Amino acid sequence: MQGNVTVANLGYPRIGEDREWKKTLEAFWSGKCGEEAFYAEMERIQLAHLEVQKAKGLDSIPVNDFTYYDHMLDMAVMLGVVPARFGPTGGTVPISTYFAMARGNENAAACEMTKWFNTNYHYIVPEIGEAVPCLTENKPLAAYRFAKSRAGIEGRPVIVGLYTFLKLSKGFPSHHLTDQIERFLPVYVELLKQLEQEGVAWVQIDEPALVADTKAEEFERVELIYNTIRDRVPQLNIMLQTYFEAVDNYERLVNLPVGGIGLDFVHDSGANLKSLKQYGWPDNKSLGAGIIDGRNIWRSDLDAKLALIHEILEHVPGHRLILQPSCSLLHVPVSLQRELKMNKMIRDALAYANEKLDELTLLKSVVSDNMTGDLEASRNALSLFRKLPERNRPDVAAQMAGIDSLRDKRNLPFQSRFEVQRRKWNLPLLPTTTIGSFPQTAEVRQARLKWRRGEWDDARYGMFVRQQIEQCIKVQEEIGLDVLVHGEFERTDMVEFFGEKLAGFLFTQNGWVQSYGSRCVKPPVIYGDVAFTGAMTVEETAYAQSLTELPVKGMLTGPVTILNWSFVRDDRSREEVANQIALSLRKEVEALESAGIEMIQVDEPAIREGLPLKERDQAAYLEWAVKAFRIATASVKDTTQIHTHMCYCEFHDMIDSILALDADVISIETSRSHGELIASFELNGYDHGIGLGVYDIHSPRVPSVDEMSEMIDRALRVLDPELFWINPDCGLKTRGWEETAHALRNMITAARAAREKLTGVIQ
Asked: First-to-last CA distance in the chain?
């Protein structure tokens, strides 16, 4: 080994140890915090994050990973990509416009939001359109100056790569990508030039799009970008960072004119290491080796990591090797320090962001200084954890052994089921419904908190939930919905709720991560074998059904979504864990049906986000994901109607898999990208029941009847009215009652107008 290895971080969680980032945002949006106070508090949070990383002894600390909402949105406004509907802009984009792009306002709909590769983080999709590229401000430069002046840190600015930025943008034909690169490249170079002039030593340019399928001609565009940067900004060291998968164009990638390249050695299935061994490493480049999992919360097997490091060191000299997480730590909680109630044996097997940085610095000390004292504690913790009986249940093993003998297809094909279900339910043309949840008010949250603290007993809390259900049913009937829901007032998160009632799950006090904007979730931890322990939703759903003659849907979260929205054990395949969950949900579906609930929605909003980034791996994933859904739902009667729901995603390339789920009705969250999805149906068709969300629940803006009618009319040009449902695009938990009622009334009015057009009968 020639020289000591160094340690870097790629990005730090934004939300803060106590979610202070989220609270500041929401206080500003609600008017409780003025603009000056907002900026001051955000600076304080940003500084605290820098100080934590500095105290960890990192050799390189990222800056500009902090944002007020989303890093892709930051890039868009910085490069002048502001849609005209948000009004004219000149120079720096006002904070009001910035947040309007993310959330919408009374005059303009928000920009589209979708998943960041195969994670549960959502980014704002830039709308290139007719935007004239210009550098409205240099956010990375400001972040660099802030870290240097306020924390004494010579930071490494983090910027989304131009290739990734444009690949994830919309508003131009894909075959015009080269034209867009040529338009934006001068502005991108100017941004980097200003950093070079400031004396910045290294810039981290994130190019995760390079781990997706990148054809040879596309890589020529990447070479164009980086050759131009080298020619025009020759003194700036570029760390070109990839993550989430292996790179396919390894030989060409390592020959790009940059100072370093970051590779993921955790989620690469061994391919990056194989390429390194086969093709070697350039003498003039640093390797950022992502060896600590940035997407899961398990403590690392440090002996295995040391073995990996030594394999890498056979091909890369020590002074060129940088140890780092596999990706930004955005995807994991901040610190284990507040996990005070957790079983110690399990807690000792976990590592949040701060603990992952500790692991990196420990590995550095072992490799560079041969200090091995702390390794034994890590070994002991993992050994005790792996022996827990909950991780190897004989009853679950027996159920899994018989899974292939279970029926995973409905008795009748959809068209035959459709006829018997139509006779049973006798719903109007274009039936209306919602996705499941209704507003979780401060009163609801306070009641749940009192119950969890023991201030309310089960009886009092149960009575409160029933009162909320009664109100919810009454409101839905008054508004005029055709199929109702109970409102989900007893539920915190759609995955956490089910995990709390299944064996094999662990819950954290402070394991929060950012999903989108200020929306934070606390994913369950699947640490053991998953097993059904008793009915989970029957009581509340059956009570709601007793209050009305209209059908009430049972509401469940599907097996693949529970999997993808949890931190999953790393000693079993994801397919195996998904099937364990599916077997448990199958029993819940059967319990609902036995209780007289014969419309059951099994939501799979996250099914696509688990899709492997490489096309060659996708068919196998979709096959087992579809099978898990059908294991959970296929045992019901022909007249029982199975619904499902999916969230913001690109669906055009998985229409066949959506059909293979064989749900009687699917609702898809599409209001921010309605046109694109309808275009997919124009090409592919769809012959099951379907509801395309007609308004965006993630924005406080209430759309007009005319807007919803326009969406309905366009959908009905390509979809069969007999199969079409009308609904919002997602659950209503985050909205207020007043705006919810207003929006749903507009939706009902639009639905009735559409029925009148189709039937000639005045509604």
From this structure: 79
Q: How many CB atoms lie within 10 A of CB 358?
A: 15
Nearest in space to 135 (alpha carbons), one of 209, 85, 79, 203 = 79
The H or E element containing residue 346 is helix 344-347
- Asked if 211 and 246 count as a contact pair (C-beta separation under 8 A), the reply is yes
What pLDDT is stored for residue 3 in this prediction?
64
SS3 758: helix
- Summarised one tens digit per residue, pLDDT across range 371-402 is 766 799 899 999 999 999 999 999 999 999 99
CATH topology of domain 414-501+536-759: TIM Barrel (3.20.20)
Task: Output phi, psi for 593, to 5 deg.
Answer: -60, -40
List average pLDDT for each run of 10 residues in the chain, which is 763 residues long. 84 96 97 96 98 97 98 97 86 93 90 91 94 95 98 98 97 89 97 97 97 89 97 97 96 97 96 97 97 97 96 96 98 95 94 98 89 83 95 95 91 95 96 93 93 94 96 96 96 88 94 94 95 96 97 97 95 96 97 97 90 92 96 96 80 80 89 62 78 80 90 87 92 88 95 91 67
Q: What angle do CA 307, 527, 604 make, to 5 degrees?
A: 110
pLDDT at 373: 65
Catalytic positions:
698
Q: Quick one: the chain helix, strand, coil %, rounded to 5?
A: 45, 15, 40
Measured CA to CA, the distance from residue 760 to residue 747 in angstroms comes to 19
- In angstroms, the CA 141 to CA 64 distance is 8
**What are the C-alpha distances in Å from 676 to residues 26, 83, 125, 651, 717?**
31, 18, 13, 9, 14
Residue 200 tokens, joined: 């910045």
Write the DSSP assignment of 459-493 as a string of letters. HHHHHHHHHHHHHHHHHHHHHT-SSB--B-TT-SS
CA 281 to chain centre: 34
Judging by DSSP bridges, how do beta strands 599-603 and 641-646 pair with one another? parallel
Residues near 286 by Cβ (< 8 Å), separated by ≥ 6?
A: 239, 259, 260, 261, 320, 321, 322
SS3 label, residue 304 = helix
Both tokens of 228, joined, read: 């131009």
Dihedral angle of Cα 17, 22, 27, 33, to the nearest 10 degrees? 60
SS3 168: coil
CB atoms within 10 A of CB 194: 15
DSSP, res 570: S
